[in-house]
Design goal:
alpha/beta, three-stranded antiparallel beta sheet, binds zinc ion, 27% helix
């Protein structure tokens, strides 16, 4: 994916963005965010340059965990006071069983979760139990500090029970926030995201299969 100069805006903002290859995929990504929020989705609007605007008027934080997550992302600042921008997009390209067979949510499995923070940690933060040369994970390619892309051609399930795509949104966006804002390593961020959005059992594997 190429960087799109349209999406490099206001370096001082702390914001949530929609990105995408074209108008259609940006629209789909925004609709997926709305599904994720459910009741209260009318608080979201898609502003200029893909920025997601959240109307928090009379909203009681804590009453909708999906909306809370988007507000947290919108206001994210890291420990050093750096602003964090996180982008969300969908991939509308068809995906083959081979593409998906790795079943690795970081790359493959129909999901790309990219962050400026390497997923295994580096230097003193590096997890000693991971082998040398452990892949650092994909880097953002649209100019944000964190980016999540979800395929529209994949279905996920756990023990044969389908997982709604909007639930995947919650898992991936929260994991990305914990990695990018809090610099948590991938495994910790993944476990917390599971507790928040997958009912608490992070030991079970998620399966992904391509759909047309
Ligand atoms: Zn995860």
């Amino acid at each position: 994916m190429n960087n799109d100069p349209l999406f490099f805006v206001d370096p001082n903002g702390k914001e949530l963005y929609i990105f995408g290859e074209d108008e259609e995929s940006r629209k789909k990504a925004f609709e997926l965010l709305q599904q994720f929020v459910g009741e209260g989705a009318d608080r979201l609007t898609l502003g200029e340059n893909g920025r997601v605007l959240i109307n928090t008027e009379d909203y009681k934080y804590g009453s909708n965990k999906a909306l809370d997550l988007l507000i947290d992302i919108d206001q994210a600042v890291d420990a050093e006071g750096n602003t964090i921008k996180i982008g969300f997009g969908v991939s509308t390209k068809e995906i083959s069983p081979e593409d998906i067979s790795a079943n690795n949510e970081v790359r493959g499995g129909g999901i790309v979760n990219a962050s400026v923070t390497p997923r295994a940690g580096v230097g003193p933060d590096r997890r000693p139990d991971l082998p040398l040369g452990y892949p650092p994970g994909p880097k953002p390619t649209h100019g944000f500090q964190g980016e999540v892309t979800i395929s529209t051609h994949v279905e996920w399930s756990i023990n044969g029970k389908p997982i709604a795509r909007s639930q995947i949104v919650g898992h991936e966006l929260s994991e990305n926030l914990y990695r990018t804002r809090d610099k948590l390593n991938y495994w910790v961020a993944h476990a917390i995201a599971n507790l928040k959005f997958f009912g608490g059992d992070f030991r079970r594997r998620i399966s992904a299969r391509p759909i047309r």
